[in-house]
Amino acid sequence: MPLSDRLLQAIFSRSLTHPRVDALLKTRHDWWRRARNKPHQVVVWLSLTDPYSYLLVQTLPKFVAQFNIQLIFKILPYQEPDQYFSYYLRDAWHLANFHQLQFHHFHAPSQEQCLVASQLLLGNRHLSTEDFLTLAKQTFLCLWEHQHQKLTMLGLRFNLLSLPTTRQKLQQAQALFEYYHQHKAAMLFYQGQWFHGIEELDFLAQRLSQQQLNINNTPFVLHELEHHHEQKYLINDSQQLAMIRAQKHELDYYFCFHHPVAYIYLVAVAQLADYYQINLRLKPVLLYQPQPLYSSLQWSQQLAHLQYLADAYDIQLTRHPVLSEQGLHHCLALFFSAHTQDQTLAMTLCLLRAIWGEGKDASHIAHLKSALQTIDYDATTLKAELKHTLWQATIEQNTSTWLALDLPELPSFYLQGERRISFCGRQRLWAIEMALIDNIKDLPKT
Length: 446
Description:
Blueprint (H helix, E strand, L loop, with lengths): L2 H14 L2 H17 L5 E7 L3 H16 L3 E7 L8 H15 L11 H12 L6 H16 L3 H10 L5 H17 L7 E4 L2 E4 L4 H10 L27 H9 L3 E6 L4 H17 L2 E6 L12 H15 L13 H16 L3 H13 L8 H8 L9 H6 L3 H14 L7 E5 L4 E4 L4 H13 L5
Parallel strand pairs: 1-2, 5-6
Antiparallel strand pairs: 1-3, 3-4, 5-7, 7-8
Helix pairs in contact: 3-6, 5-6, 5-7, 5-8, 6-7, 11-14, 13-14, 13-17, 14-15
């Protein structure tokens, strides 16, 4: 990347993510709230066909009881299941088990039943938050457990909004949701920031606590091991640990260099693999990226979320990363070279740390040499290594294999043992551990 572009991009990115800009935005939202004489409000976006919305309504009573806030509920219209729906169902089942929530059936509710449920929920938003959440939980239960008769009984006990008005409200909610460029349900919106489902409730809780809205001044955590640090794992029993280590599991880690979550989770998954003695295989993939994440306002909105996640693993993200297409190709070329020298993990961590932790430009030879000094990599043939294209076949194969797993997000994990199972997205290391536990349960008793 030319020096002028690199400097301009860094300045632009730094200005978008400067703490003063973030503070100014929060002040603006709070001023507007006070001008309208409104309490602190969190808007909750629910979809009746979304399993994560079902989990969210089960956790909100505990959440709202701890914070001095008002919840505003928006109901989204029926959505046909997409190609990843089966994964979302399985993922929601794992989340429910981890957080001890209800989720049993793996069939989406029908459009007809969702319309009745929408009439029910939209017709009773006047209820107190506690009563509405109780009704919402019962409604989701009826839908997902396919208890149609019970849903009909709820409709007789509570108000039903008329069908024309219900359809109008649903369309208005969808239009507003799209206006905000959102596509996932189970979202919570507070002072210009979006938080996804139960996965980011603890981050929202931190923000509310900073506003002095925590009623009892105790941390809100759904599960204390959701962000576990080094040496804090689900399995500590020596016998179970020995059984897992003896299985010689393999874990494929699919990732893209152009996303910081790849850096955050590589640090964590490397520690996990070492603890359980799992063979960790790194699989970088190359996907079309129309616009760098860090060159838009989206980066400024996500940086706080990403840093909150990174803090759990003692990682500091830079506010002005640089990764051009040429820099990405350099990373893939060096990964291929390191693979032949059995330095794959060290090289990948080095490159990701340089980009996302130190703001170095991987297209700039001097920056690469500086980063590679930390792993004692022989850089005498660096320029030649960066020019070759031998990496393309390997990366294309990784990409093809990942696409065949039919997972919606990166990074992704593919665990191979007694049973093969795949996970993706943020905050899923505990799911790998739960799969390890399930695997040893399937072993024959001796």
